[in-house]
Specification:
Helix 6 packs across helix 7 and helix 7 packs parallel to helix 8. The chain has a domain of about 140 residues: Rossmann fold, CATH 3.40.50.150. About 30% of the residues lie in helices and about 20% in strands. By secondary structure, the chain is of the alpha/beta class. The protein contains eight helices and eleven strands.
């Protein structure tokens, strides 16, 4: 892939620039996972067709989980919290406007979950996506919003994601990330909004769901994740799907 010039806000100017291959963590026939800071990796990428991502919202989830007794009940069982939610420092700071600009320069189209938290840096759009989580009568949010730059009417998806209850109970997914999205939901969105193929980028890959959805659909992808802990989880999930596809 061709290199791009490093923007002025590159934070490691005193460090010798690495090659893109230096960040490679895992590769399949369809995509590649890079482990590192998106500030370092994004400038090295070539253009993609769609940026589908879920950036941190700066909600400090760690404090909500461990310091608020009420929220402790909402965030699942203690085993899951201890094993999965013990490193959430990435959620303390919002994504800077320059990063959004870099994502926009790299991609033709964008779908950004949590766009309502970044209305001050995103343009007006009539093409919002609403995810109805069918959570029922509890303290969970009923919906999540995704900003898009598509010039089309608002679209709503219903996909149950309520604790132990999920839309597809026959292929139930393990919840391994506090802001994890259902793989099936992302498959629907990719099919509806990126019908003509191309490369899909997620610079905040987390537990790997965007890449997993692409693998299931036979679509090309690029993922970036700063946490090696979550890179390990993403690799395990993606590899399981890629290995299964090779059997057929």
């Amino acid at each position: 892939m061709a290199k791009r010039s490093v923007p002025d806000f590159q934070h490691n100017e005193d460090v010798k620039m690495k090659e893109l291959s230096d960040y490679e963590y895992y590769r399949t026939e369809l995509g590649v996972l890079y482990c590192g800071d998106y500030l370092d990796i994004l400038p090295l990428l070539s253009n993609v067709d769609l940026c589908l991502t879920d950036p941190p919202y700066a909600m400090d989830i760690k404090n909500k989980i461990y310091n608020d007794g009420k929220d402790k009940k909402i965030w699942g069982n203690s085993k899951a919290k201890k094993r999965i939610y013990n490193n959430l420092d990435w959620d303390k700071k919002p994504v800077r406007k320059e990063i959004f600009n870099l994502m926009f320069n790299l991609s033709k189209k964008q779908i950004i979950f949590g766009g309502n938290f970044y209305s001050h840096v995103l343009s007006i759009s009539r093409g919002w996506i609403v995810w109805d989580k069918e959570t029922g009568d509890n303290d969970f949010g009923d919906c999540e919003l995704a900003w898009t730059n598509y010039d089309r009417p608002i679209k709503k998806y219903k996909w149950r994601w309520n604790g132990m209850l999920q839309e597809n109970m026959q292929e139930k997914e393990e919840r391994v990330h506090p802001s994890q999205k259902p793989t099936g939901l992302l498959q629907l969105i990719i099919n509806d909004y990126c019908k003509d193929g191309g490369v899909i980028l997620d610079p905040f890959l987390g537990s790997g769901t965007t890449a997993l959805a692409c693998e299931k659909l036979g679509r090309k992808w690029i993922g970036i994740e700063i946490s090696e802990e979550y890179c390990k989880i993403a690799k395990k999930r993606i590899k399981a799907e890629a290995d299964q596809l090779k059997m057929f």
